[in-house]
Amino acid sequence: MLRDRSLIPLSHQHQHALALCVRIERASPIGEADLDVWQEEVSELFRSEIGVHFAAEEQVVFPAALRFSELVSLVEELTADHVWLRENLARTEAGNMSARDLSALAGRLSAHIRKEERQLFERMQELISPEELASVGERLQDALKDAHRTCTLPTQATRLRPTK
Q1: I need a surface site. Which of 27, 45, 73, 123 has the fewest CB within 10 A?
Q2: Integer Cα distance of 74 and 119 in angstroms
Q3: Residue 3 within any structural domain of the chain
Q4: Is 155 within a domain?
Q5: What pLDDT score does 153 carry?
Q6: How many CA atoms lie within 13 A of 112 on its CB side?
């Protein structure tokens, strides 16, 4: 299903986070020498975009979805994901994740994003009227105003190298 324009800003942010997840997956196993720079990049994306993104979903999207009984358990799962992801993203800020932890974080974040895109957003677009979705979009614009609007570029250490 084509994404409703009211949800597109969240989908764009999902693309930024998924790009990082793919790069972490392709770089794995991440060596000890590169672990700090990877954690810094993840931490930067959390500070500049993911934290604001989670708050916008929790303040705007999830309440709109909770009006529909069939979406309650899904929203509860997504909220629990946010708790786990915040805790682990905070660990990148402290620089105390192993390569395995970082890989697990990327996997969980990727699965979370796909669940939002394929399940939550799809059902919301089917259940909520276009006028209500437009209202959600307006509130999202305000909630996302402090997020960076560009994709973070990889550093020299975190950019993928061609495989041989």
Answers
A1: 73
A2: 8
A3: no
A4: no
A5: 57
A6: 28
